[in-house]
Amino acid sequence: MKVLVFSASNHSQSINGALVGYAAKRLQVFDPDVEIERLDINDFEMPIYSIDREKADGVHPLAQAFFDKIGAADALVVSFAEYNGFVTAAWKNIYDWMSRIDQKVWQDKPFVLLAATPGPRAGDNVLKSQELTAPFFGMDIKGKYGVGTWREAWDGDALTKDEDIAGVDAAIKGLLS
Predict the structure, then answer these.
(1) Which residue pairs from 123-127 have beta carbons closer than 8 angstroms and sit at least 24 positions apart in sequence?
(2) Domain that residue 27 falls in
(3) Is the entire prediction scored with pTM above 0.90?
(4) CATH of the domain at 10
(5) 111 membership: H or E segment, kind and range
(6) In whole angstroms, what is the distance from residue 41 CA to residue 60 CA?
(7) Strand order in the sheet with 109-116
(8) Using CB atoms within 10 A of its CB, is residue 57 exposed (0-12), middle (13-18) or buried (19+)?
């Protein structure tokens, strides 16, 4: 099984990047044959989507490249940063461009939703927003988990709280069932 993983944050030291990397390692513990491909959304930076740009130049080639990466995967694990209660502007722009290729951006792939936040709400808003839109954009949710109070939950290499370890493990095991 080929699993595409990424953080929907463009911050170079993203806590969501740390979380998705941890989840990928845990997934390989449960299934050593899993092939992980990790993307950095900074490699897909594009001009802000507008219908005028699309009419003039077509869909941006980086949007097509990202969409094709999703299509080539068997499953996805994505950790969504929460900025002002929603996804990051950097991710939203990539998503908007890809939605012009096909509204089913996630291509009905099995999907694990993750989020990490410095506060106690553990990305509740961003996880709920993604869950609400899932049926319209082809997201087949197999698990989800949010880690809150990140500084207390992470030691620099791994999660430290039993409930967070169990929560991430349960979410990613949804891909294996």
Answers:
(1) 123/80, 123/81, 123/82, 123/147, 123/148, 125/82, 125/85, 125/86, 126/80, 126/81, 126/82, 126/85, 126/86, 126/87, 127/80
(2) 2-173
(3) yes
(4) 3.40.50.360
(5) strand 109-116
(6) 14
(7) 35-40, 2-7, 75-79, 109-116, 139-147
(8) exposed
75 close to 111: Cβ distance less than 8 angstroms: yes
Res 28 pLDDT > 90: yes
Can you tell me the distance from the alpha carbon of 106 to that of 135, in angstroms, rounded to the nearest whole number?
A: 10
Distance separating alpha carbons of residues 36 and 101, to the nearest angstrom: 25
For residues 136 and 85, what is the distance between their CA atoms, to the nearest angstrom? 20
pLDDT digits 0-9 by tens, 82-123: 888 889 999 999 999 999 999 999 999 999 999 999 999 899
Which amino acid makes up residue 112?
A: V
- Decide the pairing of beta strands 75-79 and 2-7: parallel
Residue 13 DSSP class: T
3-class DSSP state of 146: strand
Q: How many domains does the chain have?
A: 1
